[in-house]
Amino acid sequence: MTPSPVTFGAVVIGRNEGDRLKRCLATLPTTARIVYVDSGSDDGSVAWARRRGVDVVELDCSIAFTAARARNAGFRELRRLAPDIAYVQFIDGDCELDADWPRQAVARLAGDDGICAVFGRRRERHPAQSPYNRLCDIEWDVPIGPARAFGGDVMIRAAALEAVGGYRDDLIAGEEPELCVRLRARGWTIWRLDAAMTLHDAALTRFAQWWRRHVRAGFAFAEGARLHGAPPERHWVRETRRALLWGVALPIVCAAASILAPPWGLAAWLVYPLQVLRLFLRRGRPLSERGLLALFLVLARFPEAQGVMTYAYRQWMRQKPRLIEYKR
Questions:
Q1: Angle, alpha carbons 211-305-324 (nearest 5°)
Q2: Residues 234, 235, 239, 240: is their CA dihedral positive or negative?
Q3: 248 lies in some domain
Q4: DSSP strands (E only) in the chain
Q5: 127 close to 134: Cβ distance less than 8 angstroms
Q6: How far apart (Å, rounded) are the C-alpha atoms in residues 110 and 87?
Q7: Is residue 75 domain-resident?
Q8: pLDDT for residue 328
Q9: What is the count of structural domains for the chain?
Q10: Cα–Cα dist 120/31, whole Å
Q11: Which domain does 43 fall in, by range?
């Protein structure tokens, strides 16, 4: 049974998604009220969505684009068009919604008033296309049950989102976990369901894209730690410190040892392959994935550190937020 339009609506956000957006909108239930929010596309996305009968919100290009701002704009428009909607499915324009997901998500939310949001398994559309796509697919395979945070694709209780004031418009990354901090502080719980939710087209085919994606993650770590790093939450404090340790402090120590105590000082660099080995030996993932995951988890500390320092520099220079894009 498909949820009725009284209970379920969808907000799609995108920018120059092209055919990905067409696939996304085609997978949404025809009974749901759908709002598409466009962040300055020049590929005909807006015209195509309108021809399909979708309500479109075009963001003001004079204000910095963020996914958070787009989701808030879409939610406001959805509530204006259908004020009785109880649940909202947020979905990125490069994703396709599983046909049975809305039914399962609405049933779980309706059956437990203490749950504010549910999400399921997001899978990569082309995991074999590149190691970076494969890494995304692994990253999204999070444990089933209570969760601390959700990502861009989520079914959320409209009343809960309104109660905390929605997403933070000014965050260029990490806006979903930041929202979850505020939702959990109000006593809500978040659940990862054992169900397929979305199919995602990461389109990460180059190392440079992967690198920028983790620069963006490091930026989010630093900003999250600034906003909610105090006890008891300690939001992303560990991740920020980890990035600075492995991406900045240890390279400085290793370089100093190499210069001051050659040739034995060069052995200090072995800390990195040893860390790869330690991560490879951890259980919990299939053996076929461990090598790729271990190597890139260690490599990721360098772009994450760059992101942390980028955030610190922008704060120091009082610069306005601007996107760190990796899909280009």
A1: 50
A2: negative
A3: yes
A4: 8-14, 33-38, 55-58, 87-92, 95-97, 115-124, 145-147, 154-157, 189-200
A5: yes
A6: 9
A7: yes
A8: 62
A9: 2
A10: 21
A11: 8-204
Structure confidence at residue 1 as a pLDDT band (50, 70, 90)? very low
User: How many CB atoms within 10 Å of residue 278?
Assistant: 11
Q: Domain check: are 139 and 52 in the same one? A: yes
Residue 298 has pLDDT above 70, yes or no: yes
How high is the pLDDT of residue 134?
A: 96
Q: Are residues 133 and 265 in the same domain?
A: no
Is the C-alpha dihedral spanning 12, 18, 19, 22 positive or negative?
A: positive
User: For 229-255, what is the mean pLDDT?
Assistant: 97
Instruction: Single out the residue of 302, 301, 174, 308 nearest to residue 228, CA to CA.
Output: 174
Tell me, yes or no, whether 56 lies in a domain. yes
Residues 287-293: contacts with CB within 8 Å, 24+ apart?
289/134, 289/138, 292/131, 292/134, 292/135, 293/135, 293/138
Residue 134 lies in a domain: yes
Shared-domain flag, residues 229 and 175: no
- Asked which of 172, 204, 236 is the last residue of a domain, the reply is 204
